[in-house]
Specification:
Elements: E1 5-9, H1 21-29, E2 32-35, H2 38-48, E3 55-58, H3 64-76, E4 80-84, H4 97-105, E5 110-113, H5 118-125, E6 133-138, H6 143-151, E7 159-164, H7 169-180, E8 185-190, E9 198-203, H8 204-211, E10 219-223, H9 237-245, H10 250-261, H11 265-280
Parallel strand pairs: 1-4, 1-5, 2-3, 2-4, 6-7
Antiparallel strand pairs: 7-10, 8-9, 8-10
Length: about 280
């Protein structure tokens, strides 16, 4: 293994057997192991039969910025820092980005030991067209912001993969039905690679109904990309109203959705007004 520098290493999502030989070597030879959860990293090493000889330091979201300077000095001094998170690849919705960026700025060596990823695993299992995709991290927690984010996916042709907390999944899928329509296909991947792995595929409406009963475990969602069909203004009224309910002026909400969907702002605004008039008649 190359000495000196930052080493990013993917760790198993759930199956210890997915750990690579290079990860085993790195855990045993690194001068410093920067871990999102030191206890979980020590448990991983024990399960792999590896003795961590280097110093183990915590490196999670709330201390990441504070820990970067000291780790940079260690790397600049010729020591090897191994960065691992609880599962999957560091810096992908996990700590690591700031340290990588700081190393790049100082021209310090950075390498990566590839391995398990919830993103690519879910894409492969989704049974959806995923030759082009975007990754959006965790869905916004609040409904208003979540609907705004979903609005940006109305005409997104690429598949979208994102993470969601199990206790928010039902609400997220219900918002997706409202903003994207119940016919858009998706896949909910639960507990990937673990004993109770489950992949539920269907339309957003079907998945929202399924999730309403409660879901447990680590969740990754794959959303089908939008079709090439141009939306009619009348089909976008609910999305505009959702933005307006979140606090946007009606004209601004109409303008945003119109730009995303590629329709006339004026026609969409008029369609919203017409729908409101019809609702009170």
């Amino acid at each position: 293994m190359t000495t000196g520098g930052l080493v990013l290493a993917a760790t198993p999502l759930g199956q210890i057997g997915d750990a690579s030989a290079r990860l085993r070597e790195a855990l045993g030879t690194a001068d410093i192991v920067a871990a999102e959860d030191t206890r979980r990293t020590r448990s991983l090493a024990d399960a792999l039969g590896v003795e961590i000889r280097g110093r183990v330091v915590s490196f999670y979201d709330h201390v990441e910025s504070a820990k970067v300077p000291a780790l940079l000095e260690e790397i600049a001094g010729g020591r090897t820092v191994l960065l691992v998170t609880d599962a999957g690849m560091p810096s992908v919705s996990d700590p690591g980005y700031r340290l990588v960026a700081a190393c790049a700025e100082r021209d310090l060596p950075v390498t990566c030991l590839p391995g398990p990823s919830a993103v690519t695993t879910a894409l492969a299992l989704s049974a959806l067209p995923v030759d082009r995709f975007c990754f959006d991290g965790f869905a916004p927690r609040k409904s208003g912001r979540r609907k705004e984010w979903l609005g940006t996916l109305v005409s997104e042709r690429r598949a979208c993969v994102f993470f969601e907390a199990p206790h928010r999944l039902a609400e997220c899928l219900a918002d997706a039905v409202e903003i994207l329509g119940g016919d858009r296909r998706a896949a909910v991947c639960r507990e990937l690679t673990k004993t109770y792995e489950e992949v539920v595929r269907g339309t957003l409406a079907e998945l929202a109904e399924w999730a309403a009963g409660g879901v447990r475990g680590e969740i990754t969602v794959v959303l089908e990309g939008a079709s090439a069909t141009v939306a009619e203004p009348e089909d976008l009224v609910a999305q505009v109203e959702a933005r307006a309910a979140a606090g946007l002026r009606l004209k601004d909400a109409s303008a945003e959705i119109a730009e995303i969907a590629g329709v006339s702002r004026r026609e969409l605004y008029d369609a919203v007004l017409a729908a409101r008039r019809a609702a009170v008649e």
